[in-house]
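Q: What structure does this chain adopt?
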Amino acid sequence: MIEIIPAIDIIDGKCVRLTKGDYDTKKVYNEDPVEVAKMFEANGVRRLHTVDLDGAKSQHIVNYRTIERIAEYTNLIIDFGGGIKSHDDLDIAFAAGASMVTIGSVAVKQPELFDEWLEKYGADRIILGADVKNGLISINGWKEEGSDKLMPFLDRYVSKGVENVLCTDISKDGMLQGPAIDLYKSIMKVHPDMHLIASGGVSSIEDIIELDEAGIPAVVFGKAIYEGRIKMDELRPFLQ
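A:
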């Protein structure tokens, strides 16, 4: 059964969502992300995806105190991304309570450093972030489009031991118009053993059911919950 991973995106210590990664579309859903995390946990959620949007923008971790508080007040497994660019950033993320980190830009710009982290911390703690737009990997909070094509990028890192991949179709993110299921199917066809985490576009419980039926291992989503498109009761069959 597909793994349900709600997302909390953080700006100025608040729970927010963007559309297509555009900071000008910021909408605050809760002043305190800890309240949101506790609500998820109370409903049976075991894992949380957190993104430091200030960190992604400034290229170093900013909102680690919020992660510390979520770790202190819940028992959720925290996957953290956004602004991890150095050894210090990685140390801060793990010290704050993250069990796993999502790394995207470093994998593109500093592959040797990514390889070092993968070897040091292991494939169960390092998630490869593959944010894709028009078939190309985007980096630095989606503000910069790289030259790496998605499939060769994935092939390269899977060959080095990567097991967990968070793939976001930027064109779908925050649009509530359905996920890029064909894209995820194509990835799973080439890498059937990958723990692929689909992200972007989830708008209803039907989208999650479709992803589950397609054999996608996990899904990250947030806006559909915050906008009331998906009720926590609807997710309970997936949270047993």
